Amino acid sequence: MIDNKTSSWLRRGKRSAALTMTFLLAAAILSLRCSYSVEHKQDRELSGHDQLPLRRQAPQQNGGDMKPKTWCRTPEEYNRGQWVYNDSSDVTYPYLSGPDPVWGPICTKLQREYLDSGNQSHMLPDFLRYRWQPDDCDLDNQGWDRDQFCRRLNGKTIGVSGDSMSQQFIHSLMGFSHGTIEDHLNYVVPGKFWEGQPDHWLKIRVPLCPDDERYNVTLVYQRWDKYQGQEQDRAALTALIEESDYLVLNWGVHYQAWSDMERATDDFVGLLEKLWRSPHKKPERLMWRSTNVAHARCSSARGPLKEIKSSSNSSFTDETKSVIHEMYSTQEILWQDSYIVKPRLLSKLPQTTLLRIEETTLKRPDGHRVEGYKGQEDCLHYCEPGPVDHWTQLFYHHVVALQI
Prior knowledge:
The chain is α/β, with parallel strands linked by helices. The protein is 32% helix and 16% strand. It is built from 11 helices and 16 strands. The protein has helices at residues 17-33, 75-78, 105-116, 146-152, 164-178, 231-243, 258-276, 318-321, 330-348, 358-362, 389-401; strands spanning 44-46, 61-62, 65-66, 81-85, 96-97, 130-134, 157-162, 180-181, 203-207, 218-223, 246-250, 285-289, 308-310, 352-355, 368-371, 377-382. It has a 6-stranded mixed β-sheet with strand order 9-10-7-11-12-14, sandwiched between helices. It has a two-stranded antiparallel ribbon with strand order 1-13. A hairpin with a 2-residue loop joins strand 2 (61-62) and strand 3 (65-66). Helix 7 (258-276) packs parallel to helix 9. It comes from Seminavis robusta. InterPro entries: TBL, TBL_C.
């Protein structure tokens, strides 16, 4: 498997002292007056860092009958829940990854040990046994029905743009669709737009339903760490937009100063507005995936964190911050996501669907690669398969169950 062939994600924009002081003051005020999410006002905080396997509770009953749940439709609904442990011997790897001794040696070792054991249940990594279960509604995440997925998206192209975390998202899509991840077989030689442009240096095109001639579903991925609103950026994004029916965007953990993020967001939102007014009206649906967090001390994690209780102040308290890796600007990037990106998308592009994964991912310090490139600690990326599959199942839920 080829993944993250560049170390650009390690680079961080350096903030000046003035910007830091300004941000800290603003953040302190905002945390007292505002909820973390502008559009949903959904607040949560950690109640503790103990890790435990959470078992699925028995369904609620009314007069002896099961009380049916409706499909989850909003982030408030599907983010209120818990990670549930399944100790069944039927649980197995949902798909396989190729050997990755450079970027994910521990993940490769765990998969090899499981396969060498003859798929013995006790050799399955625990992080593959957890599934997100909302409290008051249901997600269509109990399995991957390839026929339903292919039928629903027949004739469509899914365009994805983002950094290495979005690359993990498309790996998961490919894994569920093909049974294996083989992205190196699907590289597209970059064209003029991408020559000499390191921020969108890779493009992958792959059919997601290759085994059934009835269906034609295409996945196109464009590696992009930062959108900066330059001419080459607009040209590359325009090319992706024009061929995508579903467009999934996320700029990941590559920090930009607030003023730069505002300019970049205004630029690409304006570009989308312009293209959506065209006769072809592409894409049909824009999905913005929020950024996951990098965890501190992921090497000692043995399962999800306990339930994060709701709060009327800020979802990222001092207690919550203690589980976030200090190397990354995760909290600040998520604030930018809430106060810059999402308000503009929701007000100007009504066809936007928010895929909120930061709260559920915050509870998953387990399942990380732990050891990454050249032996460096990697508490940002996950093993594939692993907790990243929840992001893909959330996409599946929206397009198949909700038919968005």
